[in-house]
Specification:
mainly beta, 3 domains, 14-stranded antiparallel sheet, 5 helices
Length: 491
């Protein structure tokens, strides 16, 4: 299976170990997964077809539509001995315009979850799903209730707000020579032949007939070691950003398992995207502070708005310099060296968050506090917008002016020239190699800039991709947006 999706341009090619034949498995495996919501080219909104120029996925030589992709990886635990998968959801960025939190629930909980408008989980059993090994096909059948926390932006007959529906997904699990496993989604349909789209069709639930695709690489066997005795294995604690060696990661005298008992999708009192177990003290309930975000370098950073505006959709991800679908690069990519000629290390990756913008100001000041402030820190903001001058969507990497406020903090001013009600902050962080790397440590550097006159038409999962194809589709379908206040759920 191949997709027109952009991997990080700076990532080295990965060689996976040789596979053994599909088989039933034993033990407990843990890891992260990516999610894509797909649709057959004939299954558009309200019975329309997707225009050919919007088809951005491909399987067996046939094109299909990728409706949305998760902006960060989810976490799941496969217990082959008990035939269950415990699964934390994530958030989709869909159609270049919507953030959609999602969660898979145990099928028995569908009625309990139908009315929820935000992610509410009371016990791990609610997100523990049954799996069945099918010896004939060599596939695992996952059964669940898929919930999307979104109000559809246009009316679709039969589709509810915050929709949920029963479905299944068939997954192929291959064991690597090193003992890890890879998971891919099979093309399996109910009552009809395979349609060359990964996943199984879900009818009459979401605004289009969707097919959920999960992919996971290098899932590791969990030896079930629990160094701090808190009930969370070391392997899972590491995945969710907790310290496996202490019971209180954020040091606020409340154990992680107390603050966030549903640790795979931890309790998030202020709905900013970070678990209470990572946000110490009052920051766990203060939505103007996002505390304890762990960057790919394992550096932790806290984000605060100076004037108290709400912060949400907080996450970190590895460096990705791809140009979003239907966007044209303006200017250059972030540089390989700073003004002093020092090589820059981009191991910190991205810090992403949204802020409720004030009613009128075109700028907003935020503070970033680090557990250890990188010496020579540079920050570049990924700025995506529609440009009348360029005649389309543009993407620019804009260097931010930083002010050091103390030994661990900097402040910067985010511009909002269009006075958008939401400021999208997609920040790339870097520092000189000499100050951040061990002598033999690998260095993450950006590549040379591509031709800025030609947009990259591959799909990106970055936080504010273009919506031109979607708007075209709406125009063709004759649909109108609902003029209503967004009630997006938080997860």
């Amino acid at each position: 299976m191949t997709h027109s999706r952009v991997a990080c341009l700076i990532a080295a090619a990965t060689s996976f170990p040789a596979m053994v034949n599909a088989q039933s498995h034993t033990g407990v495996y843990v890891g992260k997964y990516t999610t894509h919501m797909n649709a057959h080219k004939e299954n558009g909104v309200n019975g329309t077809t997707w225009p050919d120029n919007t088809l951005d996925g491909e399987f067996n030589g046939e094109k299909y539509k990728v409706l949305g992709s998760a902006i960060t990886e989810g976490i799941w635990v496969w217990d082959f001995d008990n035939n269950t998968v415990t699964m934390a959801g994530s958030t989709l960025f869909a159609m270049g315009m919507l953030y959609v939190p999602f969660q898979a629930f145990n099928p028995a909980d569908i009625e309990n979850k139908r009315a929820d408008t935000s992610v509410l989980i009371n016990d791990l059993s609610e997100i523990t799903l049954p799996i069945e090994y099918q010896a004939g096909s060599g596939l695992y059948k996952l059964s669940y209730a898929q919930k999307k926390y979104v109000v559809p932006p246009f009316p679709v007959p039969g589709v509810d707000d915050y929709p949920i529906g029963l479905t299944t997904t068939h997954l192929k699990i291959d064991k690597n020579a090193n003992g890890s496993v890879n998971i891919t989604t099979a093309d399996v349909e109910d009552g009809i032949p395979a349609d060359n789209v990964p996943g199984t069709r879900i009818h009459n639930v979401f605004p289009a007939v969707v097919q959920v695709e999960y992919t996971s690489q290098d899932m590791q066997l969990d030896p079930m070691t629990d160094s701090n005795g808190d009930g969370i294995s070391d392997a899972v604690a590491t995945l969710v950003g907790l310290n496996p060696n202490v019971r209180d990661t954020d040091g606020d005298n409340l154990d992680d398992i107390v603050e966030t008992p549903i640790y795979l999708r931890g309790k998030d009192s202020d709905n900013d995207g970070l678990s209470d177990a990572l946000e110490s003290g009052n920051s766990a309930t203060d939505d103007s502070i996002a505390s304890g975000l762990q960057l790919p370098s394992e550096t932790r950073v806290s984000i605060a708005t100076v004037s108290g505006e709400r912060i949400y959709n907080v996450l970190s991800r590895t460096l990705d310099l791809s140009i979003a679908s239907q966007h044209t690069l303006q200017g250059e990519l972030p540089p390989e060296k700073n003004n002093s000629g020092e090589q820059l290390d981009y191991q910190y990756g991205h810090a992403n968050f949204n802020i409720d913008a004030p009613a009128s100001p075109e700028t907003l000041e935020v503070s970033l506090s680090f557990d250890k402030l990188p010496e020579g820190l540079e920050i570049y903001r990924v700025d995506k917008r529609f440009s009348f001058e360029a005649g389309g969507f543009t993407q620019e990497f804009v260097k931010q002016q930083l002010t050091t406020t103390d030994d661990s903090s900097v402040s910067l001013t985010l511009s909002n020239p269009d006075k958008s009600p939401t400021i999208i902050a997609d920040l790339i962080l870097a520092a000189p190699v000499a100050h951040v790397s061990e002598p033999d440590a690998p260095v993450t550097t950006p590549p040379s800039a591509p031709d800025s006159t030609t947009p990259d038409t591959t799909t990106s999962t970055s936080s504010s991709g273009g919506s031109l194809g979607w708007l075209t589709l709406l125009a063709m379908a004759g649909l109108s947006f609902r003029k209503r206040k967004s009630h997006q759920g938080k997860g």
